[in-house]
Specification:
six-stranded antiparallel β-sheet, alpha/beta, Rossmann fold, Alpha-D-Glucose-1,6-Bisphosphate, Chain A, domain 4, seven-stranded parallel β-sheet
């Protein structure tokens, strides 16, 4: 079958592609920027990638008409835009209108559990999208999930940050809210199982794990799996806004995602009973099994996707292609070079930079910069990296985004996603046994220029030390 897949570079989309390929399907992957799609990861001639922006109707003509089904995996929860509801409405409407013009029999939509009368802004938006998609001429199948547990998922990483960093927690009262977490493996089984399964046509199903737990129980059982002793005290005085700051500063999440999560966590997400699990023959993993499986992937560096893969900067909304050409006019440039003793060793170091490896020199200063970035609402250093040795265009790397990564050309280009009065690039390139390290800053107004001169004294210290370590 020919399947249209949206949200291709997102957390769920990257997990679903291998499963669909294993079943012999042809996949049409919708992406905003082809440079973010890693063809080498899948190595299949049954993948076609088209550049489509569902907020721009003109681009939707690229979607072929002879598709059999489509997955709608688009969401804007982590977008730094207060009006994400309107963006989701436009995207869903454009998708519906275009798919109606194709031969698709079914659309499969992954939503959130919306059984409570009072919903958060995020869950209300998910419900509105479902209503829009349901008005199409095709058959709609909606799968509604709450917390998804898996290596790289936002929920998993937030739980991990809280448990591993805080032996004692004074937490908001929403930790007593009930939820029904589900393993990512089971989510993929559901998404695969309902494909052109007529029983699921024009119906919605809540999907969750085998246990209903409060968020407090989730944290404590996570700690038990990790063999950590943790104490949690809930207090009634912490508002959703304070909860957002609590999540933001302790975990690796962005403030906008923390804010939306805090509001959603005040709402119970417990499944209504249905027969879909039995009809598809799905064996639900327990909470402990899901956590252990996730850590197995992390330890083996086999994390397929991460919530951090999503673009976070407004300037990146047009894709990463326009950032490949580093500007020179009106820019400040710090360019340094050094002879390389062993090209392969230096390249390995460059490809391992950031995350657990660190920045090779004055890591405490990088940490201070990350903390300052958090104070001003930035992403900070806590995002780390998905893999300690592999890196691809579009990956997040601490407070940078990978724009270009080509080991054959021996070139790595990063773009800053930290809060700055301007734009910044950091490039590493090896030419003729010489490592060239270039920091470029395009200032925005007077504050941008003052910023550059204020950090200039540190550049000689940090960049010289880093260059020396990378080239030695």
């Amino acid at each position: 079958m020919k399947i249209l897949l949206t949200g291709t570079t997102g957390y769920i989309g990257q997990r679903l592609i291998p499963t669909l390929l294993e079943d012999g399907h042809e996949i049409i992957c919708c992406v905003r920027d082809k440079n973010r799609f890693d063809f080498q990861k899948y190595k299949s001639d049954r993948i076609k990638v088209i550049e489509v922006n569902f907020l721009d109707k003109k681009t939707l003509d690229k979607i072929p008409e002879d598709i059999d089904a489509a997955y709608y995996l688009i969401h804007s929860m982590s977008v730094a835009n207060e009006d994400f509801e309107e963006l989701e409405k436009i995207s869903a409407t454009n998708f519906k209108e275009r798919v109606q013009q194709t031969s698709a029999r079914q659309v499969i939509y992954l939503s959130g559990i919306v059984n409570e009368e009072k919903l958060s802004k995020h869950l209300n938006s998910r419900k509105l999208v479902e209503e829009i998609l349901a008005s199409g001429s095709y058959h709609l199948t909606t799968l509604r999930a709450g917390i998804i547990l898996g290596s790289g998922s936002a929920s998993f990483e937030i739980i991990r940050d809280l448990v591993e960093k805080l032996p004692f927690m004074i937490a908001p009262k929403w930790l007593n809210t009930k939820s029904q977490p589900i393993a990512i493996r089971n989510v993929i089984e559901y998404l695969k199982g309902v494909l052109l399964f007529e029983y699921s046509f024009d119906r919605s199903f809540d999907i969750g794990g085998s246990e209903i737990l409060t968020y407090k129980e989730i944290l404590l059982r996570f700690a038990k799996v990790r063999k950590l002793k943790r104490t949690i005290v809930t207090v009634p005085v912490m508002t959703p806004k304070l909860s957002s700051y609590w999540l933001y500063f302790v975990t690796s999440t962005s403030f906008h995602l923390a804010s939306n999560l805090a509001k959603s966590m005040c709402v119970e997400v417990v499944c209504r009973e249905n027969e879909l699990k039995d009809r598809l023959g799905i064996n639900l993993l327990s909470f402990e099994e899901a956590i252990e499986l996730a850590f197995g992937k992390i330890q083996n560096e086999a994390v397929v996707s991460s919530w951090k893969d999503a673009l976070s900067s407004h300037i990146l909304d047009r894709g990463i292609s326009h950032l490949l050409e580093v500007p020179t006019f009106g820019c400040f440039v710090d360019k340094r070079s050094s002879q390389v003793k062993d090209v392969n060793e230096s390249l390995t170091k460059i490809w391992s930079i950031g995350g657990e490896t660190g920045w090779y020199y004055a890591n405490w200063l990088w940490g201070v910069r990350g903390f300052i970035d958090k104070l001003f609402g930035g992403v900070g250093l806590r995002r780390g990296r998905k893999n300690n040795s592999l890196i691809f265009a579009g990956d997040s790397l601490d407070f940078w985004r990978v724009i270009y990564a080509n080991p054959e050309e021996k070139r790595l280009l990063l773009y800053a996603e930290m809060k700055l009065p301007g734009e910044a690039w950091l490039e590493f390139k090896i030419e003729n046994h010489t490592l060239i390290q270039t920091a470029t800053f395009r200032p925005l107004g007077l504050w941008g220029r003052l910023y550059w001169y204020s950090v200039l004294p540190f550049h000689g210290f940090i960049f010289n030390g880093m260059l020396k370590e990378l080239s030695s």
